[in-house]
Design brief:
638 residues, Immunoglobulin-like, eight-stranded parallel β-barrel, six-stranded antiparallel beta sheet, disordered C terminus
């Protein structure tokens, strides 16, 4: 060892490498009965240096060493435990995974100096009910040539799309795994054919590599993924710049993390603490078989951080009084129920209504109709069956029950009647997501009908199957503009995004419940097994804002294959109903052209269509988001 160094026992915490006043402290957890060494690799190519940690460097099960005078630019390191080399699980940067898709033969941990990246935190916490989540893959979002960004498939590429995200209206970007992991995996054949046993190319023939495109696997959790950076040597800087750029536009950054069941609880907490303190992340979706829910909920550093789980076990004492309601659950119940209603299944209405309004006071609920797994929104209305042959598993992988409907033709078609129906169904789906109570989540590309060609499990597809084709915007502009209008509408009207769950009661004694259900007759919803239609009225008096009240809204959903009539309740004196949005474009145009008689109290909603009406002052007209003047629809009797 060089004379200018001085090695002494270090401090146990923090784990990993931390910069000191005159050197660096290395600390790791290891079984005390196993041999443990710190291996330093000189970048000059000289022989590696081994520091035995077994004698004098142990505190409990933590081994730590302080090296005074170490030049971080001159060395890389790993640990040797019981004869096996391990990169530091607390490492913040690694060498060997910079090139996406290349098989990694050797990984080394780099020594980073402590650095403040100057990330601007959001000025205020965005409540769940005011949030619009947008799930995206850091690489696939801009990797396609049609993205027209300079740095395709990178963190910087996301930064280049911020203007698009702003125009869409989302408040929170949800990143699929963006921490370091080995995406290229070896796949071994289970059996070797007899005729290959003597082949000189046996090794290459019985091994193949496969991409884990999604990244839900064990990773190096403290480091941004270097192959997702335009400058792979500075992934941590590029990631921090992306966060700063999104924060500057009041857009949150939420990261997904997957932890295998053998992950230690303290490790999980340390991971989240690090991303909060270094990169100023706004929230986490935490997945895994064994998650320390109680510890994460109690962690003081995460109190103003969105914490989103697949579940909150019943054994957890859920907080009843929160300054910032930071807990949230994302489950498949609403997604599959909404899909069943969308395709016209029977006996769905009661369950849909319950989940549509579900918005507990203790924690928030995410409402979505698609996710990274399963069909995209376009594929949901274009395929009855999964088409996963390209995954190489004989179409056995992926969920066989998607609750999808192809609108009469499997896959893409030129039939205009089918394509028009699909557009209407996608609009219906967006209405179910963006008008539901809780926090809506859109999967990137769904707003312009992105397709994965019927593949409902493209976990191994790093190609045009999973990369967003931005040219689809030109073909599906109608759906994109409709989605923008819905998001804008939700943001503009607090009654559509209440922080409290609707109670279906008139708690204000104003003559109207906060939310009420209707059918062909007012106040009488049709909840029978065969029913595929329902209407609901949002009472603007329950908006819960400093304004006197919000407008009233009447949502008429008809997922039957025949048209149905709905009765409009009477509004307060001086107000009338107006048609605001319809998923049936042709029907909406016809509705705006005709005067309705004063005594008329019924509206007609075509098959597989949704209408949204809004209260308006009598004798006035308003403009829709498309600029169409809409006639007032008259009141009916209560």
């Amino acid at each position: 060892m060089e004379n200018r160094w001085h090695v002494e026992k270090g401090i146990p915490y923090p784990l990993g490498v931390s910069e000191t006043e005159n050197g660096f402290n290395f600390s790791m957890v290891c079984n005390p009965v196993l041999d443990c060494c710190l291996i330093l690799y000189p970048k000059s190519g000289d022989c590696e240096i081994s520091i035995d940690l077994m004698n004098g460097y142990r505190t409990g099960s933590v081994f730590s060493v302080h090296i005074i005078g170490l030049d971080p630019e001159a060395f890389e390191y790993n640990y040797l435990v019981d004869g096996i080399i391990y990169p530091d699980p607390y490492g913040k940067k690694f060498k060997g995974m910079e090139q996406y898709g290349q098989l990694t033969n050797e990984i080394r941990t780099l020594i980073l100096k402590d650095k403040d990246y100057g990330i601007k935190e959001l000025s205020s916490y965005i409540p769940y009910e005011e949030s619009i989540f947008y799930l995206l893959h850091p690489r696939g979002f801009t990797k396609h040539s049609s993205s027209h960004v300079k740095s395709k498939g990178t963190f910087y590429g996301i930064s280049e799309k911020i203007q698009y995200l702003k125009e869409l209206g989302i408040t929170s970007v949800v990143l699929m795994p963006a921490y370091e992991f080995e995406e290229t995996e070896r796949k071994h054949m289970m059996e070797t054919p007899v005729y290959l046993k003597e082949s000189p190319n046996l090794k290459s023939m019985i091994q193949e590599t496969r991409i884990n495109y999604w990244g839900y696997k064990k990773g190096y959790y403290f480091a941004p993924k270097s192959s997702y950076a335009y400058d792979e040597e500075n992934a941590e800087l590029e990631f921090s710049n992306m966060v700063s750029a999104l924060h500057a536009e009041k857009i949150e950054v939420i990261m997904q993390f997957y932890f295998p069941k053998d992950t230690k609880y303290n490790f999980i907490i340390d991971v989240l603490r690090t991303w909060i303190t270094i990169y100023k992340i706004d929230g986490f979706m935490v997945f895994g078989e064994k998650i320390p829910y109680e510890l994460l909920i109690q962690e003081p550093l995460l109190k103003r951080t969105k914490l989103i789980f697949n579940e909150l076990p019943d054994t957890i004492e859920k907080p009843t009084k929160l300054i910032d309601r930071n807990l949230c659950v994302i489950k498949d119940d609403y997604m599959y129920t909404a899909r069943k209603l969308l395709k016209g299944d029977e006996d769905i209405i009661p369950g849909f209504l319950e989940l549509f309004r579900k918005n507990p006071s203790e924690y928030a609920r995410v409402k979505n109709i698609t996710n990274y797994y399963g069909f995209t929104l376009y594929d949901l209305v274009s395929y009855d069956q999964k088409h996963n042959d390209e995954n190489g598993e004989d179409n056995r992988d992926g969920n066989s029950y998607n609750y999808s409907w192809n609108c009469g033709f499997e896959g893409s078609t030129r039939k205009q009647t089918v394509n028009k129906l699909r557009v209407r169904q996608m609009k219906n789906a967006m209405m179910m997501v963006l008008l539901a109570q809780g926090t809506p989540m859109i999967v990137s590309g769904d707003e312009f009908a992105n397709s994965q060609n019927g593949n409902n499990n493209p976990y191994c597809q790093d190609n045009s199957t999973t990369w967003l084709n931005w040219d689809d915007i030109k073909k599906n502009k109608e759906l994109l503009e409709f989605t923008k209008s819905l998001i804008s509408l939700r943001k503009s009207h607090p009654i559509l995004r209440r922080p409290q769950e609707f109670r279906i009661m008139d708690t204000l004694s104003c003559g109207y419940p906060d939310l009420s259900f209707h059918g062909e007759e007012v106040w009488q919803p049709e909840l029978e097994t065969h029913s595929r239609q329902i209407a609901m009225m949002f009472c603007g008096y329950y908006a819960g804002t400093n304004r006197e009240h919000d407008e009233f809204f009447y949502l008429a959903i008809n997922m039957h294959w025949i048209s149905h009539s709905f009765a409009l309740p009477r509004l307060p004196d001086g107000d009338e109903w107006m048609l605001l949005l319809s998923t049936d474009k042709e029907e909406m145009i016809e509705e705006t052209k005709k005067e309705l008689k004063e005594e008329q109290n019924l509206i007609r909603v075509n098959a597989r269509s949704i209408h949204l009406y809004c209260s308006s002052k009598r004798q006035h007209t308003k403009r829709t988001n498309k600029g169409i003047k809409t006639k007032i629809v008259t009141d009916s009797n209560k």
